[in-house]
Design goal:
The complex is a heterodimer of chains A (124) and B (197). Chain A has helices spanning 14-27, 48-56, 70-82, 94-106, 111-119; strands at 5-11, 33-37, 62-67, 86-90. Chain A is of the alpha/beta class and 124 residues long. In chain A, α3 (70-82) links the parallel β3 and β4. Helix content of chain B is 67%, strand content 0%. Chain B has 9 helices and no strands. The chains are: A alpha/beta (124), B mainly alpha (197).
Chain lengths: 124, 197
């Protein structure tokens, strides 16, 4: 753990969450990025348990969370309600905003600035 | 007062109906969603059946709470957190007031659904089923026909919430799958006699 914030990626498809993690890792090698894609059986959907476990496995106390479609947000919100971490959820373009956050965290940009740039990508 | 045995019968019948209507619910969802509603609810129903067979329930709160937790964990899709929140909020209402009236219990469930999904009436979601049903329960005039009528009434609505909203105008003319599965919930509620207590 070398950063103050980690990034959680929630998608309906495991390969999307894992693929986005791969993309982000390329620009943010020192940022902890955890993916929580698909249901418990790795089928299409999202899993409250998977998201909760993802959140708890961060060493960082603060987590920026990004998601793809509606029900991912519902499961994410339920997981946030029971999480011990401070989690911020963004209703922003999944790929672009997560990429922005990862790049800026890697560059040690202040969190206010990261939030401002990420929030400019709000689409939902 | 709602007896735990009656509520258990309600859930058993609901499970049965979800398994029986698995294909139908998925067909509805294929028309305007991602086609998995029947499968998701059936997966939840199977898991719930196992869970409820594990122990004897002596109070409504535990029964509803366990049901909610299974829904959250096992259903997947949007219906998991939505039905899950409904049952968990109903469990809380039953805990706060052991004599809770059915309408108030269902209202707590609806509040849970709306808190989680942020849907209002008229957006073509399960909320369009829950609102008129609760009103009828309050006035003691809910019937199976009415439950079906409210499901049917979601047909002409243009979806502005949920997966169907991506289709815009194209969502018109189709029954909302979430309203349909909620219809099963309310019809089994009537059949089990929960409303008569």
């Amino acid at each position: 753990m070398s950063k103050t914030h980690g990034i959680l990626l929630v998608s309906h498809v495991p390969a999307i969450a894992d693929g986005l993690k791969e993309l982000l890792s390329q620009v943010a090698a020192d940022v902890t990025i955890i993916s929580a894609g698909g249901t418990d059986e790795n089928e299409i959907g999202t899993s409250f348990d998977k998201i909760s476990q993802g959140l708890e496995s961060f060493e960082e106390e603060r987590v920026l969370a990004f998601y793809d479609l509606g029900s991912a947000k519902m499961n994410l919100e339920m997981a946030m309600e029971v999480a011990t971490k401070k989690v911020t959820l963004y209703d922003t373009a999944f790929v672009e905003s997560a990429y922005t956050a990862a790049s800026l965290l890697q560059a040690d940009a202040p969190i206010d600035m990261i939030e401002e740039q990420v929030n400019a990508l709000k689409v939902k | 007062m709602i007896k735990v045995e009656t509520a258990k019968k309600w859930l058993d019948l609901f499970i049965e109906q979800l398994l029986e209507n698995k294909v139908y619910l998925s067909e509805l969802d294929t028309a305007i969603g991602d086609g998995d509603h029947g499968n998701n609810m059936a997966r939840g129903a199977t898991a719930l059946k196992e869970k409820l067979a594990e122990k004897e329930y002596d109070n409504l709160t535990d029964l509803l709470k366990d049901t909610g937790m299974v829904m959250v964990s096992k259903v997947g899709g949007a219906s998991g957190p939505l039905y899950g929140s409904a049952f968990i909020e109903m469990a809380k209402a039953a805990k706060n007031d052991e004599q809770v009236a059915l309408a108030d219990l269902l209202q707590a469930g609806l509040d849970g659904i709306q808190k989680r999904g942020k849907a209002a009436q008229g957006e073509k979601t399960m909320v369009d089923e829950w609102i008129p049903v609760i009103e009828d329960v309050q006035n003691n005039q809910l019937t199976t026909e009415k439950v079906d009528e409210y499901v049917e009434k979601t047909k002409p609505i243009k979806a502005t919430k949920g997966r169907a909203s991506y289709l815009g105008e194209r969502s018109i003319g189709h029954i909302d799958p979430g309203a349909a599965s909620s219809g099963l919930l309310f019809k089994t509620m009537l059949k089990a006699g929960v409303a008569d207590e």
